[in-house]
Amino acid sequence: MILTIDIGNTDTIFAFWEKNSIINSFRVNTKSKNIINDCENNLVKYKNKSLICDRAIYCSVVPSLNNKIEKILKEFGIKNIFILNLKLEMPYEFNYQNKETLGADRLANAAGAVLNYGKNVIIVDFGTAITFCLIVDSVYQGGLITPGIKIALDSLVEKTAALKKIEIENQKNILGKSTELAMKSGLYYGWKGLVKEIIQEIKNYVKIHHKNQEDKLILIATGGISENLYFIQEIFDIIDKNLTLRGLLFLYHKNYNNS
């Protein structure tokens, strides 16, 4: 059994794998003051279920948490702990300046995508930020980063006097008949338009720079809310909310399986 961990800006996700299937998982709020206690309490529950193991691999975009998480894992008997870094053997190459600046979650996403879905992919990760990554012929070509939907909503509410926080929901009608519905429609159709336009521009880039490859691209959505927005189902070929964790699992097998 292997434990994979994705330490993100908003949430930290733990997943226990048996072979290639997640048999249990839990999520804690990364920004919580009680994140360490939350992790410990959840791990106690899973240890009581005999789901704890001695191997773990994680990726992190919050370096200040790395040592704290590793300390907790060791206290629960996980002896072999590995972190995703560029020293690992990847299933793709890079056409990217300063690849050391790439977020670890993007590296894991790319590994999971190439392994499971093909060598020509566009990956869109709907998290705290929305990240777009292009891989052509198993070469990481680059990408974009935009503010996430929840960040935009929080900023809108914070910077206005009358607008209230709302739930992000699918909208059938583009025109809202109340302030609340207008906000919901703006979020839904605004980000639908953003995602569609950026993907089209990436396809245009591929058409110019990688001839005959644009029709081979597979569109993959992942991230915390990737299954909750209907327009994602309209745009993408694949929705895999566990892509980051899947990539971590592959990189463990590729690099550490004999540890």
Précis, in short:
This protein is α/β, with parallel strands linked by helices and 259 residues long.
**Whole-number total of structural domains:** 2
What is the multimeric organization of the chains shown?
single chain
CATH superfamily of the largest domain: ATPase, nucleotide binding domain
CATH class of the largest domain: Alpha Beta
Q: What is the CA-based Rg, rounded? A: 19 Å
Distance between the termini: 14 Å
The secondary-structure class comes to: alpha/beta
Strand content: 25-35%
Helix content: 25-40%
Query: Looking at the structure, what is the overall shape?
Result: globular
Number of helical regions: 7
What would CATH call the architecture of the largest domain?
2-Layer Sandwich
The averaged pLDDT comes out at: 90
What does this protein look like?
- This protein has 259 residues and is of the alpha/beta class.
- It has 2 domains: 82 residues, Nucleotidyltransferase, domain 5 (2-Layer Sandwich); 155 residues, Nucleotidyltransferase, domain 5.
- It has 7 helices and 11 strands.
- The strands form 2 sheets. It has a 6-stranded mixed beta sheet, with helices on both faces. Strands 3-2-1-4-5 form a 5-stranded mixed beta sheet, sandwiched between helices.
- Helix 3 packs across helix 7.
- The mean pLDDT is 90.
Spell out the blueprint of helices and strands.
Layout: E1 2-7, E2 11-18, E3 21-29, H1 35-48, E4 55-60, H2 66-75, E5 80-83, E6 93-94, H3 104-117, E7 121-126, E8 129-136, E9 139-147, H4 149-158, H5 179-209, E10 218-222, H6 230-235, E11 238-239, H7 243-255
Parallel strand pairs: 1-4, 4-5, 6-9, 7-10, 10-11
Antiparallel strand pairs: 1-2, 2-3, 7-8, 8-9
